[in-house]
Amino acid sequence: MTPGPTDPTNTGIKIVFFDVDGTLMHEKKIPDSAKRAVELLQERGVLPVLATGRPEFEIKSVREQLGIDWAITCNGAHIGCRGETVYHTPFSREIVVDWMTLAAEHNHSFLLYGAETMLISTSAECPLFLQARQEIGFLDPLTYETLDEIPEVYQFIAFLDETEQKRYTDPYEDEVALHRWRPWAIDLNPRGVNKSVGISTLLDHFGFTREQAAAFGDGLNDLEMLQFVGRGIAMGNGHPDLLAVAPLRTKHAGEDGILYGVENLVLASK
Hey, what's the signal peptide range on this chain (predicted)? Predict the structure, then answer.
């Protein structure tokens, strides 16, 4: 049986979803106050879950440091418990082969997120990949020799501007969803997949309602989940467009924002 909440008598918020970068993590580290916030939830029988654009293998250390079992990864395309796949929505093989063939022809760099690995379509010395690594951090990706070596892919990060992107996305506009997070970088997921979809799947798994869920996030790929759950909480350092529409707001991630939000917006009385 997959692990779940420890206190079924809890009648308030029963599950809390956390984005990772810029939310649980600040400057590539988990603040002690964020660790304490997760402990408080667990002590009260509330289930903490990661909800990130990163793949399962890349957030393993975060999950284990915090004692969290469940993770929604790849912007909702993969759900795992202790690293094992429970639900997943991969890209079609047609798209994977087509895009990686084009990427090789035009020397474009893509990160490919599988359940247990991360590949790169070019050299890991790609300047835009190195810039992204400096800004938010990445583990070392692997390269591949043939398309047959590529496993199921749940998310691409494409280092492309909007004009270059259209070469890839226009032929599959009905099959692909995107979140642009830099002028030169985008997340690409199967159409209809975002963090709120992964959250809905996990709520059904546990028999919870959206009113019994809270979520913390800072980026535009957190927009759908903050609007979906009963208590959507934006970090004080969040993207301006997210802050403009988020139902609730906590402090900056570097100013104990997670602990403040958990104590005052999740565990406190309405």
Answer: none
Residue 268 has pLDDT above 90, yes or no: no
Give the mean pLDDT of 8-24. Answer: 84
Q: Give the number of other CB atoms < 10 A from CB of residue 187.
A: 22
In this prediction the pTM is: 0.85
Domain 15-88+193-266: which topology? Answer: Rossmann fold (3.40.50)
* CB contact at 8 A, 124 and 61: no
Topology (CATH) of 93-190: 3.30.1240
Place of tokens 């909440």: 5
Q: Distance of CA 92 to CAs 72, 134, 176, 212, Å?
A: 20, 31, 10, 34
